[in-house]
C-alpha cells in the first residue's frame, strides 16, 4: 500500500464532483490526463504555479491560474470577485513569485443582474488594489440561461520570482518543521453555513485574503523555506499528502497544535465535517528546516495575517508517505486524502 | 452621431447574449464596467493583450486571456481544445508578443465523459506543440450537472514582446493600408453549419490556427506594422470599428477585395448572415503605412496561413470614425458595430 492514486477509467468514466474536490480523485485526473498529455517539467512538478526562465534575462517569472465557481457568489467575508483575486495572488506567492499582474476571464449567464456583476467587479478592483496587483487584460463570454451558474471567473497571475528562493516541495527533509499561518476551515465553513442557513453566536466569516505580503515577510526572514502551499480545496489534509508524496517522506502533526476557531469546530461537528479537509483562502502551510522554525514563526506572528501561526508537526522518514495525526487524547490516526466530494464549489 | 456606445443600465439591466457577441453591447460592458473599475492604462488601451514592463529587465512581457465556451465542442476543423490554444496564442501575437507559455483552466460539468475530455486534452497538447507553446500550469473545477455546458476552458498566454514593435491601433493614420490574411467567416460558418445541420458540396471547415508564425514573418518584413488584430467575435466589422475608434479616423473597404469562400457566401445567404460579422479563428487584420503594404503582402503570401492575403481598403480622415464599404455594385454602405447577438458561443 502506498500513497498514490488509482487508475482513471478513460474509456467509460465520467467527470464526478470528486474530480474537482482537491482529493485523491482530482490528483488522479491531473496526473493521468493533464500532466500525461501536456507533458512538461512545470506541470509535472505539480506546484501551485510555474516558475519560468525568461530568454536572455536573469529573472524568472511565475505564472498561476484558477477558475472560480464558488456558490453562493456572495458570502460572509467576501464574494467570487475578491476570492478570484486572492486565490491567484496566493498561488503565485506560494510558487515563489511576487504577484504583479492578473488577467480576468468572465463567463456570464444570460439574465445575470448587472448590479451584481458591478458589485463583483468593484470587489475585484478593491482586492487587487490591496494586494498590489493590476488586472491588465480580460475576456468576457456570455452563455445562454441555464448553461452556467451566474458567473464563473478565471484569473491568471504573473509575477517575478523572488531571487534565490526555491519552493519545490521535493526540498522537504525528514525532521523539517510544519507550520500553519492561522486558524483552519474558516472559508469552507463560512460558505457551508451560508448554504445550510446555519447561524451561530459568532458569525462564521471567510478568511479570504491575499497572502503575498505575509510571504514576502517570511522569505525576508528565512529565504531557505523549503515549501509553501495554501490549503484550499481538500484543506490541510490535501497539502500534507501532496507534500509527503512530492518529498517521499511521511508527515506527523499534533491535533492540539492546529489552530481552530470554536465556531468552526462547532459547525464542523454539526455538519459531520472534518476541519482538516475544509478549504481555506487566507492561510498557508510552510515547511522549513527545524533550526529556521523559530525565526519563521516570529516573522509570521509579526504580520496581521500570521498572528495565530503555529508549529503543528514535522516531516519524518517513511517510504509509504503516510500522514499521521497525534490526537488530543494521545492516540494516532491516518490523515488520508479526501476521497469524496466533501464540499463542492467551495472556491 | 458618433461611433461610441450608449450607457449601460447598471441598476436594473441584465446580462444579455449580445454582451458577449463582440459588438457594441460588449464594448459598452467592457468600458463602463471593467475598464472603469479596474482603471489602468493596459485595460484602457483595449488591445487583445497587455504589454508589461518587467522590473529591472529590458524585456517586456505580453499577457492575454480567453475563455472558451464554444458549442458544439467538436466541429469540422477543430474542437474547444485546439480553439483554446489558438485563440490565446493569437491574442498574444496580435499584441506584439512571441507566445511561450499557456495556463489552462477547466470548468467541467459533472457527468461529462472522460473520453471526450481526453480527446480535448490531446487536441490542446497537439495545438500547443504546433504553435511552439507549453501549457505550464492549470486548474480544474467541477460543477454539478446542469451548472455548465460540458466543458469551458480558459487559457491565458504569456510571451516576450518582440523588441521595437508597437501595435497600438492609435498608431493608425489616414491613408494607411488595411490588409486581411485570407478568407473570412470560415470558423463561424463551420460552427453554424454544424449547429443547423447544413450540408454543402464542399464541407465548411473552421480556419482555427495559431498565427504566431505568420506574425513573426510579417514583423520581420515590416517591423513598423501599425496594428494587428484577429477578427474573432464580431468579425471584420468589429475590428474595423475598434480600429477606427482607437485611431480617431474612418475606414473604407472594397467589398470586391474581401476574400470569401463561395461555400461561406452560400451558407451566409441561407442563414441571413453577413460574413463581415462572422467570427474567424485563423485570420488577422493588419494596418500599415501605404508604402509598406506591398512588402507586407509579399511576406504574408509567402506563409501558408497568409496565402490569400488581400489589401481591402484604407484608413481616412473622418472625425465620426465611420467604417464604410464600397459595394461590388459601386454603391456605399456603412459597416456598423454588430448590434445583436448574431452568433452566440462561437468561440
Précis, in short:
The first copy, chain A, has 347 residues and is of the alpha+beta class. Helices cover 30% and strands 23% of the residues of chain A.
Question: Can you describe this structure?
Answer:
The structure is a homodimer of 347-residue chains. By secondary structure, chain A is α+β, with helices and mostly antiparallel strands. Chain A is built from nine helices and 14 strands. In chain A, strands 9-11-8-12-10-13-14 form a seven-stranded mixed β-sheet. The first copy, chain A, has a five-stranded mixed β-sheet with strand order 1-2-7-5-6, covered by helices on one side. Chain A has a two-stranded antiparallel ribbon with strand order 3-4. In chain A, α3 (80-94) runs parallel beside α4 and α6 packs antiparallel against α9. The longest helix of chain A is centred in the middle third of the chain and has 18 residues, at 114-131. Chain A is globular, with a radius of gyration of 19 Å.
